[in-house]
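Hey L., structure's done. Input below.
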Amino acid sequence: MILFIHGQDTYSSREYLERVIDKFKQKHDPNGENVLVFDGEDSQWEKVVGAITGGGLFSSKKLIILKDIFASKELREALNEFLDAHDLDADVSLVVYEGASPDKRSSLFKKLNKGKFVYAFNALDGRAIEQHITRMAEERGKKIEPSAIRELSIICGTDLWRAKSEIEKLASLVSDIITINDVKENTQGKLENDIWQFVDAISSANKKEALNMLDAQLESGVEPMYLLSMMIRQFRLLITLHNAQGVDSALASSLSLHPFVVKKTRQQSGRFSIEKLKAIYQALSRLDSALKSSKGDPKVLFTVLIDSMVK
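Output:
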């Protein structure tokens, strides 16, 4: 059995992946010995194919998860060729998880997308985002005013990782109901400015300033996953606007951004080569996988990231 999970809504896709893993453990493998996870470009095809074709430990059933392999041409093509030549053993469940929107032109995407178990988590609309925010508050034993829901959905956009972080923070501050004043007084602001300063520090190879920003945010209680999501968003914008043609207002309209954000981002992107921006973005993606799989102390992982950025 092959499951293909992908889409821009990485929060929902990640939740679904966790449910798949939990269901497999409950039914076949309580200790998870036969749940094998391979992370993107850090994976070697020889190990992947060995896991697919080899026997399971203590059980014949295996759950193999390949995460974010579309970025690697070698892995993408190797898996495509393998699936052309082999049928999976009935005891093997293979999950191809892509925490983004994979290239729909690729042979692998076309093959996987024809399968029986395809789960596409596309970017959410406003109503769906508000429903998620309401559910997040309820799961933490809080009510949230409709006006507060709308305000938070505007602030967070389609980023449910950020919405989760904001709700957790707000839930810790109120006794019962999250109001619009709670949202306005305790969200946005400093972190966005710090992200701008962080990019400036990286562009000028100022490791000390970048580390100071990191320490300040983590010590203030900002969730590591949320902090990383803001960094990823900013560097994605830097790549998008690097050498972009057109006036700020037109680009702002097409990207649903404020013209000031476009102007500032274009200025910052000019301080990097496109190769440097892509290398940083790949490093951020690797950190994303590490944080989601709880591989190591977040502060140490962020410090290693900054070291790699300013080399």
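The chain has 15 helices and seven strands. The two ends are 43 Å apart (CA to CA).

-- N.
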